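Encode chain A's predicted structure.
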Amino acid sequence: MNMQPTTVQTAIDSNKERQLWKRRYLVHRCQARYRREPYKLTEAEFVQAWHDSGQLPGRGKGSYCMTRLDPRGAWKVSNIIVQPRLLHYQERSTKQKLVRQNRLMHYIRKLWN
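Encoded structure for chain A:
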């Protein structure tokens, strides 16, 4: 029994794979636009970044996500990194705490002046 896929089956699988990555790219771009974040990644650059990382995107605890190195910068090749989702949320949480502390200190200073 030959378990090797035929060339037709391989073509179908690769077409499904391309469609999946295109959808991931479009969803990512649409979410960035919704958040009014500048987006300069092409579909090829998006797929290449994931391919180079050796990881797959996901939503689970041990999955990976694409994030920007500089949150104020555009989504572009020189400003993205693929990292564990958990690490991304830890960094984001730390930054949010610092922002809250700065706001609180600013408010306290206003009260004392």
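DSSP finds three helices and two strands in the chain.
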